[in-house]
Design goal:
Layout: H1 5-24, E1 29-32, H2 37-50, E2 55-61, H3 67-80, E3 84-88, H4 95-99, H5 104-120, E4 124-126, H6 139-146, H7 152-155, H8 160-169, H9 195-209, E5 217-221, E6 224-228, H10 234-239, H11 241-249, E7 255-258
Parallel strand pairs: 1-2, 1-4, 2-3, 6-7
Antiparallel strand pairs: 5-6
Helix pairs in contact: 1-2, 5-6, 9-11
Length: 276
């Protein structure tokens, strides 16, 4: 049987060139850089393809961004020599965002695009949306597109697994970085987004990462925190039960629970019902 590896490598190489071609169609780009695997690869490719004068990375800083993520963005920018800056966003000033209905991400991405606008200088905003992202409830993508952003990975038909595979082949340490959606995604729809709730989630998750848990979510239900980790980490959480409870209670929660179904990214979207 022929070895499939060369064909897979060739396909990945073709897709990388498609991303580069998509980037070259613009005189300059600004990458919305959250530090996750997707935006990190896009920032690296934009810098490598267009150079530091034509490719910049911008990180939106707000209470919904975990402090560790902002720090990692700064570290990655320094490691890779990116042209990078922070911009402050103030989505909490928008009552529609604080309401936390099914359009919360639309309002958040609108705030991001408005914050980036003074920094664009005529450049096109690019986001690390991949093909797999198109199948979930992602109103933020609509907001970004309405403000002129483009998605080079979608143009190149890249999947999440391919983003990670390409990142690994390029030697980027973000290839296996756990997904880290904004902290507001830990709140069930209808629970108002406040500085206090975002801080509680951030402190709880930071405390659990300090115990060695890499991939996790702390879902906020008032005084109750529901911890989600991959199924393979359930035993590790139980083994550290005392430390886990202490870390989460230090964030202000009274009750600490562990979800036996494990980590499911975007699982709160089920409350919105089936998509048409």
């Amino acid at each position: 049987m022929p070895d499939p590896a060369p064909a897979l490598e060739a396909e990945l190489g073709t897709k990388v060139e498609a991303v580069r071609a998509a980037l070259r169609r613009h005189a300059a780009v600004v990458v919305a850089f959250s530090g996750g695997a997707d935006s990190a690869l896009l920032a690296w490719l934009a810098h490598d393809t267009l150079g530091p004068q034509r490719a910049r990375a911008v990180t939106a800083v707000s209470p919904s961004l975990a402090p560790e993520e902002e720090q990692d963005c700064a570290a990655l920018a320094a490691e890779w020599g990116l042209t990078w800056e922070r911009v402050q966003t103030d989505e909490l000033a928008n009552p529609a965002y604080r309401l936390n209905d099914g359009q919360r991400c639309f309002h958040c991405k609108t705030s991001l695009m408005e914050a980036i606008e003074p920094h664009r200088g005529g450049a096109t905003v690019v986001l690390g949306v991949n093909r797999d992202d198109l199948g979930d409830h992602r109103p933020g993508q609509t907001a970004a597109a309405e403000h002129g952003a483009v998605f080079p990975f979608v143009e190149a038909d890249l999947t999440k697994d391919e983003v990670r595979a390409i990142s690994r082949r390029l030697g980027l340490r973000t290839w296996d970085k756990p997904a880290a959606a904004c902290l507001a995604s830990r709140l069930p729809y209808g629970t108002p987004v406040t500085m206090v709730t975002l801080r509680s989630v951030a402190v709880a998750e930071s405390g659990l990462r300090a115990l060695g848990l890499r991939s996790l979510r702390v879902r906020h239900y008032g005084e109750l925190a529901r911890i989600e980790v991959p199924l393979g980490d359930l035993a590790a959480v139980v083994a550290q039960r005392g430390e886990v409870v202490a870390a989460v209670r230090a964030a202000g929660y009274e009750y600490v629970t562990l979800d036996l179904e494990g980590l499911r990214s975007g699982n709160l979207n089920h409350a919105l019902g089936p998509r048409s």
